[in-house]
Amino acid sequence: MIRAAKQIGKGKTPEADPKEIQDLCHTFNQMSRDINKLSEDRSLLLAGVSHDLRTPLVRMRLAQEMLDKNIDPDLQSGMLQDIEDMDTIIGQFLDFIKESAEEITQPVDLNKLIQKTCKLYLERGESITLTLDQLPTLTIRPMAIKRLLVNLIDNFHLRISILRRSLY
Predict the structure, then answer these.
(1) pTM above 0.70?
(2) DSSP code string of 147-160
(3) Where are the domains of the chain?
(4) CA 144, CA 139: separation in Å to the nearest integer?
(5) DSSP 3-state assignment of 106?
(6) 142, 112 in Cβ contact below 8 A?
(7) Over the stretch 60-72, which tens digit does the pLDDT of each residue have?
């Protein structure tokens, strides 16, 4: 390869015997198989993590539903909300990993992405105060960043909700 690169650099056509070309092709094919195997292993790992994290949540949800009906309804409701929030966070995390690994980077106006994301919350009647500074166009994975924004906003709202519940 080095010899061929030097020959091309001098404007000459590189010479290689068929054995070198076969070895090079074999190496590239092996790299391709290795990459495919890594992708399959990653998918299997994600599925396993999802299952392993969600199984205890299902047990917790069942236990919560079987609790004595004389228990404070606000406590029961809070427990169910916590379980659902944990399930949502796990789902968002797994989606983030899957999408960000597959998504192609592209130039994006981050302020427009932030505004578009916040608009979804405003349309649902949620309160969001937004103050943005001028930013350059950035080359990012837009869906991954949108998911990050949604997670930040949801986590903020979740913490506010928990604080309100603990105060009452």
Answers:
(1) no
(2) HHHHHHHHHHHHHH
(3) 104-168
(4) 12
(5) strand
(6) no
(7) 888 888 877 778 8
